[in-house]
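task queued by scheduler; priority normal; single chain, no ligands, no partner chains; default sampling; output format set to C-alpha cells
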Amino acid sequence: MSGLLPSPLLALRGIGKSFLGVRVLDGVDLQVRPGEVHAVVGENGAGKSTLMKVVAGVHQPDEGTVEFAGAPRTFRSPREARQAGIGIVYQELTLLPERTVAENVCLGREPLRRGLVDRRAMLSHTAELLASIGEGSIPPDTRVGRLGVAQQQVVEIVKALALDARLLIMDEPTAALADHEVDQLYALVRRLQEQGIGVLYVSHRLKEVFDLSTRITVLKDGRAVATLDTADTSADQLVRHMVGRELSSYYPGRAKPQELGPVRLTVRGAGNRKLRGIDLRLRAGEVLGVGGLQGSGRSALARALFGAAPFSTGEVTVDRAPVRLRSPRAAIRAGIAYVSEDRKGEGIVAEQSVLDNALLAVRAVRAVGPGRAGRGARTARVRELLAAVELRAAGEDQEVRFLSGGNQQKVVLARWLALAPRILLFDEPTRGIDVGAKSAIHDLVRRLARDGAAVLMVSSELPELLGMSDRIIVMRDGRIAGELPAGASEEDVVALAVGTAREAAG
C-alpha cells in the first residue's frame, strides 16, 4: 500500500478495567481508521463486550486513554458518546415495536414546528437517511414490530446515523439473521465503509470476520494479544491466537462404521404442514447432520421429532417399537431430548439458578420418588452432570442469565442428560457461542454418541456440519433433498440445498 495511512478515527491506549477486583481489561490498545471494518474476536469472557461498552460510554476505563477524531475524550455516558459520533448496535435490539420507523429514529430529538412534533419533517428526514444507505424500500411510517429482524437492524443503524455517527459498533449483528439476511447486512456494512464510517465488528463467526474486516484484534483474558491484517491471516492463525490450538483440532474424530450400533430411530413417510415424505434412519453412536437453507424444514424436522409440532402422517419407531410423538412429553418418554436453537426463549429460564434450570426436565416428567430421598438422588445426579460438562459458574445458585452462551448451553445439556436419553436432537447447538466453547460442545456431542446415543444435529454453519457429521441429509422445501456421506464438500451441501444437484433420497 502506497502513501500514508489515514489518522485513526478511534485510538484506545492502555485501557484497563476491573469489576469487584477482577481484572477484565488489561492494557488494551486498538485503533480504527475511517472507512475500516475492524473486527474484534475472542472467547467468551475475553473482554470484548466490556471494551465495546468503554468505547460507547457505558463504562469508564480505570486506566488508559480514549481518543476520538484526534482528541482525547472522556465519555461519562452513552449519550455523550452518541453526541460525539459513536453509535452501537447491540445483539439484542432496543427498538420500540409499537412506534414507527421514523419515531424510533428520531426518538428524543423529534423535529418541532410551532411547539408540536413535525411528523412530515420526521418522515422526510428518516426517508433520506434510509435512502443514503440503500435501504429506501423500508417505509418510515411502518410500525417497527411489523418489520423482520434484518430490517429492524437497519433501523438501529439509521438511529445511529441520525446523530451523524462516524464510528459504528456492531455486536454479533448476524446472531438472529437468516442466511439471506446476512448477505443484506454485508452489503450495508460495505456501504457504510464507502461513506468513510468506521466499524467495530464483534463476531464469533470467523467467516464473517474474514469476509468483512480489514484488520482483526484478538482479545484473550482481557488483553489484546494480536492485531492482524485480515488479508495476511488464516483461520488457523486466528484460532491459535484465540485458544492456543489449531482449527483442525476443533472437530473430534467421526465414528467408524463398525462402531455404530443398531438402528435407533426410523421415520417413514412422515409429514405435517411444513414437512412431507420424510424417510430417515438414525443409528446408535451416529451423528446425523441436517443441512439446508433457512426455512427449508431443518428446525421443523427436529421439532416434529420432539412432538413440539408433531407429524400428522407417517410412522416413527424408536428401537423398533412404534411411537406416537404427539407432544414433547411423549417424546421424552420415548427417550428423546431436544436442545432448541432459541436458547434464550426456549432453553433457559434466565432468572432462575443454574441448579433449578438443570433440574427442570426431571422435575417435569418424573415422579418425585420416595420423599426427600428421591429428590436428593435426582439433585445429586444433576450436580454430577454439571461437573461432567465442565460448567464454569460462580456456583449452582448463580442466575443462569449471568453465564456465557457456552455455559448456558452446558446447563441445558446437563438438564437433558439427567433423563439418560437414547436420542438427542440438537438444533444449532453452538449458535452465538465462542470458538473455544464450540469445541467443548463438539467434544461432548461426540462423547454422547460414543456412549450409545443417537444424535441428530441441525446446523447452518457448514464447517460444523461437515466436521461433526457421520452422514448429512439436506432439506429443501420441507423434504429431504438428498443424503451425503462423511467427507462431503460445502459445494455438495449447497448444491442440494438450492436444487442444482440431482436428488437422491436419504
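post-processing summary
- The mean pLDDT is 86.
- The chain has 18 helices and 22 strands.
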